Every structure is written in structure tokens, then in C-alpha cells.
Amino acid sequence: MKITIRNAKLTDAKTIADFNYSIAAETEHIVLDRKRLLRGVKALLKDDSKGFYILAEVGGRVAGQLMITYEWSDWRCATFWWIQSVYVSKEFRGAGVFKHLYRHIKKRAKKNKLVCGLRLYVERSNSRAQQTYEHLGMRKADYNLYEIDFVIKRSGKSKR
To answer: pTM value?
Structure first.
């Protein structure tokens, strides 16, 4: 199976939004507002300062995606690229789609002297994803993530 990687375009917004909707439903059991989600995807695709998406294609069909956003590190005088919105279509899971996306973005980041590293976060219970990330050379960071979310309300307690 030939997997090709390309930058996303504005015409990919609906596909990306559909994938993001599926991510939220599958991993966090959250139902997102589709209109707001599509606006958010389009906003990023229209403004490189927010980040960018790359897509994996198989036979001309989008098989997977990931988004990069930015975090400035004053300690390093450089930017971390955050890997977010990772999704691989169910029919292409286990076929190396994420591995191709990751290797592409890692190579691209290493060539960019303004990038000091890659980061991502993963649900604590998603052991399969964690194993994948570790297999590709990433390691657990020494930080826990805290947040206050003013948009998405979660029911129940945190999964710890």
C-alpha cells in the first residue's frame, strides 16, 4: 500500500472536521458541535500562525491526519511543535499510516532550525497509542497536564 503525505488545503476542511468529530467520539466520548468544529478547522487552514494539518492519502483517499500547533520555549529560544488531532480511518488502522505521518513531521521539524522538538498528549487509558508513540522514539514527559476548558464541559470525574 502506497501512502503519500501532503499539506492540507482549505478544500480538505470538511474531511478534517469529520475526522476530528470521530476522534472526540471514539477517544473521549464527547459529541462536538459540528458547525463550531468546521469553523475551527477552517480558521487554522486560513492562518498559518495557528498551525497546520498534514494528511496521509492511500489511493487518492484521505486515510489519516495530524495537526501541528506551536508552543514557544523561552528556555530553548525555539518552538515545540505539538502533534494534535491525530486520526486514522478505521479501514487503514494498523497499516502504518500514523507512522508515515509521524516520520514526515519529525523529518520536517528536524530540518527547521526554529523547532526544538515535538510534543503530544494522549489519553491515559489509550495504551495502544502510547505504545505506538514509544515505539517511534517518543518518551513520557516529566509533566502532567492541567486545564480549564471554557467550551467543552465534561461530565463525571477525571479518569485516574
So the answer is: 0.91
